Amino acid sequence: MNKITQVINLLKKEFPGLKPVPSKSDPLDVLIATMLSQNTTDKTSYIAFENLKVNFKNWDDVMNAPITKIKDSIRVCGLTNQKSASIQMMLLQMKKKYKRLSLEFLRGKSDPEIYDELLQYNGVGYKTISCMLAFSLGRDVFPVDTHVHRVSNRLGLAAASIPDKTFAQLKDSIPKGKKFLLHTLLIRFGRKICRSKNPLCGKCVLYALCEFKDKELYAGSNNAEPKENNFIILEHI
Ligand code: SF4
Prior knowledge:
Endonuclease Iii, domain 2; 11 helices
């Protein structure tokens, strides 16, 4: 059994009730929600997304709005200048190219075609597109966020300096049908056990498989109260 399959099997036992349930939400909604979620918590990015939905009639309205109104709506989630500019510019470019602000046409395209299509927009990278593919189109993909990147590299599944490189190294090695499941398991595991600071190596079911050079230093860490975010934003869009 290869290491990825061992990790999946052990984490499924660790989190027995965890089932990945991608929604079938509007792809443009999910894309923008994911852009808002960069470098912040699920809670604040969800508030920012809800603010946009309340303060604007539709995405055309956001496209035509004064940028200050967009900034005010999303201020809670940080990187306000960058996120508001990226979202408005993307909407302008999409309107020009597709004539309407809808990404429903992507449902008929393959994953590689969708990556190619959306990577042209500033602020939209592999993780953002992968989240949209999973949470809106129900595709079996492997979004790599900061938790997935950290845990994958500590375990030795990847050897990469940034999440996009971890994605490139792992996306074709994960068994078919298990990519989104592994993503969900690693996020939960990264938040509860293999935390960025003070990982709980002493209670880790993956200890024997792990290649993290400092794991022995943390082998006594097993009883700190784990901090968990309130929810995973994209399951609620
Ligand atoms: S042993 Fe420690 S570093 Fe390795 S996966 Fe477990 S918690 Fe993470």
